[in-house]
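yo

u said u wanted the structure for the complex thing, so here. seqs first:
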Amino acid sequence: MSMLRMQRINVYALLEYCRDILEELQRRGVVEIENVDIEDSVFYKDDTSAFQARYNSLANTAKEAREILLRYAPQKKGLLSSFNGRKQLTRDEYEKLADDAQDILKAAYDIISYQKNIERNEAEKVKYEAQIEVVKPWLNLDVPMNFSGTSTTRAFIGKFAPPKSSTDIMKELAEIIPEVEGIDVETVHTDDNQTCVFILTSKQDADAVSDALRRIGFEYPSYVSTVVPKKREKEINRHINNRDGRILENQNNIKALADYADKLAFLEDYYVMKAERYSVYDDISTSNNTFVLTGYIPEQDAQKLKSYLETKYDAEVELEAADGDDVPVVLKNNKFSEPVESVIATYSYPDRHETDPTSIMAIFYYIFFGLMFSDAGYGIVMALACGICLFKFKGMDPGLRRSMKMFFWCGVSTTFWGLLFGSFFGDAVSVISNTFFHTPPPNIPGLVVPIWFNPVTDPMRMLMFSFLLGIIHLFTGLGIQAYNHIRHKDYLAVLYDVISWYLLVGGLILALLSMEMMGNIAGFVLPPICMKVGLIMAAVGAVIILFFSGRESKNPIIRLAKGAYGLYGTTSYLSDILSYSRLLALGLATGVIAQVFNQIGSMMGDSIISALIFIIIFIIGHGLNIGINALGAYVHTNRLQFVEFFGKFYTGGGRGFNPFKINTKHYTVKEDI
Amino acid sequence: MSEIFTNSGLFFALLGAALATFVAGIGSAIGVGKAGVAAAGVLAEDPSMFGKVLIFQLLPATQGIYGLLVAFLILSNVGLIGEVKEVTWLQGLLYFAASLPIAFAGYFSAVHQSKCAVAAIGTVAKKPDQMGKALILPAMVETYAILALLISILAVFGIAGM
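structre next:
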């Protein structure tokens, strides 16, 4: 339970080392760089936006090339490959790949240009295919499309739309020009939309026929060529085959570069890193020969970095304790509570002046999650799944790894409570032994009979236990508030704001529990003396709150009014405590739904087929129940922490530490420092 | 006639079970549907958000399950599932009354939780790192469904012990 002490770091060094120093800082990832606001006659800011833009575009080139490459030569991926995280490179591997950067970049450009060729050829292919469509109706024509006749004849090539049969055409022509004879109409092609015709007539009748044809709807084709259609089709097909060949060739060229997939991923990272390094130039100030850099560093890393920079680069490093309001916050906890830091981070980092509640919260977090999920079978499934993933995928993304660890502990706690309450996949053991073996289940404590008690049959007891945990949780929250006051040496506030509430709430609870009415619910009654003691405690607490909770106001009336309002806060304690009834409700939900699925599964009796059905229903049903109730347990555990617990003491509002580091997607570099 | 009257205990118990399932179920169906529409909209922009928005879509699903839970408890208590039991007219009415909290609090909390979930999906689409906070707001609405579930369950257990 602590926060790392932060130091402010100032680095002054020669400009010639600037690049190397920044690279070192990026690799270590321990310094958050802050904007130095010096601009005068000596110091100025280097404008590196052109470099940033260039490296970003190179990174994009690598990314695009890799995407193209993976389209033609996909990599095999396992189902759980997303857990793998980033691959680790040793320093030597990194240097070697960095030396190859130009070569990889060339491959990237090649891949992109091959892809452009493919796209161009595909576009051309589409164009030719459209031409084939135009030629198709004319394939039966043995003359070129621009054929107009011999020395004595005249040919008309064209179409009628909508379609018309050749006899109809003859008939209509005969009606208009009955004097003309010897018109030969030949249908070349006909479909639903058009009839393509070849009409031959003698030369002297040509004008009359042409005129008559126009009147009955003859159209000249839009496509005219000097080549016989069949020949033209062959030509076009040759073009298409040609394009297909070129596409295939380019695809093969890309596939030949398949080995570059990983290298391209590296190249993307490489240029992203460079771009980020240049973006730091916006925050540092340079003179002609020197530069200044300031930022924050955790105290534990400071000396090491200082001596490294001073010996290797002859830099001047200043360290001083940082205590401003803007100092970033780094939490430091042991392995058990560290995973819960991410839950704190989703709420807000603690303010620099308050204590880090992670380790205390972690205990309650695991307990509450376990109570709401409360099934040994589910807990084992969850802990095993997380444990195996953690063990198998060591390079997992740190954030994901943290969540996995958290759910591992949640699973352990769930198993614990499940055993206490005697729930193992609901009542699976008894159902199986009753249905399929026709014997009462063996008395295994934890799996069949509860080690402590069964909340489904004794919900009131569980409700009381939930309230008890809630009161402990709330009082712990108040305790942390007291601890914060003590750290700031504000001892009176401990009495006014914390002890007063302990007295009031504690006293009221004591008094309530010694009433007959509550005895029916709780199952026990405290001796009458507790009533007296409780009421006195509550009265003392109430008086303190009435007179002192508004103590920052000078005006006595306003002060009393504020005190009265403070007393009204008692109602919020009531609702806070009642809110813990969700521990019972969600626990029951898990248990009863599990029983429902077991019962549905066992309805078919005991044959081999019904056993199979039972197994299927068991897997699907419990899978579903795990999903929905784990989500519920997670959300409501968070709520109990954020609303009820944090409401008692936590201010938050701290700023997370955001060091200058390697922000890559595919690779990390292993440091051998 | 008198036979109908004496056996109507079972009818009211079943009516209660049906009410708990379908009223809370309708609420969840509306809620999950609304949240699903918003979630699909986010996916159109950024498919990698699937895991996150799915959680929000599932939030209003719980009320329907709570309803199912109470219905199941009633059914098994009156012997419609499992061993047959005698249900008096009064007991039937009591079961019916016991189903009301989860039926109605379930319905309204699911519908309103989904409005909150839709807004939270919008939050997460713009600021994926604010997942934790965005999740808490719809969860607040669920509190009342949980309280209703608690009372319904306690009542059903209480009636069975009568």
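Chain B has one domain: 2-160. The longest helix of chain B spans residues 2-45.
cya
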